[in-house]
TrEMBL record:
Native source organism of the sequence: Priestia taiwanensis
Reaction(s) the record says it catalyses: DNA(n) + a 2'-deoxyribonucleoside 5'-triphosphate = DNA(n+1) + diphosphate
Pfam families with a match to the protein in the record: DNA_pol3_delta2, DNApol3-delta_C
PANTHER family to which the protein is assigned, alphabetical: DNA POLYMERASE III SUBUNIT DELTA, REPLICATION FACTOR C / DNA POLYMERASE III GAMMA-TAU SUBUNIT
EC number(s) reported in the record: 2.7.7.7
GO biological process: DNA-templated DNA replication
Lineage: Bacteria, Bacillati, Bacillota, Bacilli, Bacillales
Protein name: DNA polymerase III subunit delta'
GO molecular function: 3'-5' exonuclease activity; DNA binding; DNA-directed DNA polymerase activity
Length: 330
């Protein structure tokens, strides 16, 4: 789906309103700081903003997406737009100096120039000081956009010279909607959206066969715990631990297991609209009749406790078996 200010506004309404107002009033700042969690569209917004500023055919600041400038910005090869990313673990002084050298030259096609610094919080001290001098003496018609997930790690003097725009996490309902729009399986999208707020990460989970199998195994474990408890340890040995064979994978398994217990509680409370495993409502309704609210709450507390202990130097299989025994006991 082609990006527009309209659909960006549904995700980041405050940011879009401020950028649109700055263009309409011809008060575009010389430096912006886009700060917010991973996956909130900071780079995407930067690229669209750049198109609006450089587009030759757009109407009311909506880029046309078809002119030479729009196409080159989209492909990352516009001569007057620069993207700086970490070289290894950090952004180095030399990278900022090279950027400054580029900006001493006349614009290739116009007086406008724009640069984007991704992960600006990863600048070395020397790089940050070099950038500070650059921000203190901005060139005419130059726009800087700094992107960060951790604005507190930037120099206060840099922050003070930028207009800060805060990007909010994508609401889960919108994240699921976007995943489904991209033709991901709704049942997987619903679970993925609970595990991450990053659209890219959620989509990667939806495309991962391991994740789809993990969801199926959690459903099977939950059903086994409540209908054939004498088979549970066999299931763990033969299927569960082979699939969740390291601590990171087991954490994901526990996260999904926690979701299905929450869903059971929602079913008991008559709040089916909150259920994540929407394709398992019949099973949840059936099993919710066999469990008290207190038992479900205890199960969730035990899962959370196991999640805390899992990164300690413990035998993960033994730890999980202990959890299963507690879940069976209620």
């Amino acid at each position: 789906m082609r990006q527009t200010w309209g659909n960006l506004q549904t995700v980041q309404p405050i940011v879009v309103k401020m950028l649109m107002n700055s263009m309409k009033k011809q008060r575009v700042a010389h430096a912006y700081l886009f700060e917010g969690p991973k996956g909130t569209g900071k780079l995407e917004m930067s690229i669209h903003f750049a198109k609006s500023l450089f587009c030759t055919e757009g109407l009311q600041y909506e880029p046309c997406q078809q002119c030479s400038n729009c196409k080159r910005i989209e492909s990352g090869n516009h001569p007057d737009i620069f993207l700086v990313t970490p070289d290894g673990l950090s952004i180095k002084k030399q990278q900022i100096q090279q950027l400054q050298e580029e900006f001493t030259k006349t614009g290739v096609e116009s007086k406008k120039k724009l640069y984007i610094i991704e992960h600006a919080d990863k600048m070395t001290v020397n790089a940050a000081n070099s950038l500070l001098k650059f921000l203190e003496e901005p060139h005419a018609e130059t726009v800087a956009i700094l992107l960060t997930e951790q604005s507190h790690q930037l120099l206060n003097t840099i922050i003070s010279r930028c207009q800060m725009l805060t990007f909010r996490p994508l609401p889960r309902a919108q994240l699921i909607e976007k995943l489904v729009e991209k033709e991901n399986i709704p049942s997987l999208a619903a679970v993925a959206a609970q595990l991450t707020n990053d659209l890219g990460e959620a989509e990667a989970l939806c495309h991962d066969d391991w994740f789809a199998q993990a969801r199926d195994l959690v459903i099977k474990l939950y059903e086994t715990l409540n209908t054939a408890s004498n088979q549970t340890l066999l299931f763990i040995h033969e299927q569960w631990m082979k699939h969740f064979d390291d601590k990171e994978k087991l954490q994901i398994g526990l996260d999904i297991l926690l979701l299905i217990y929450k869903d059971t509680l929602y079913v008991q409370l008559g709040e089916k609209e909150k259920v994540v495993f929407h394709d398992q409502v019949s099973l949840l309704q059936h099993l919710s009749l066999q469990q008290s609210g207190k038992r479900i709450s205890n199960a969730m507390a035990n899962i959370l406790e196991t999640k805390k202990r899992i990164n300690a130097n413990v035998n993960t299989q033994l730890l999980f078996e202990q959890l299963v025994l507690r879940l069976q006991e209620g």
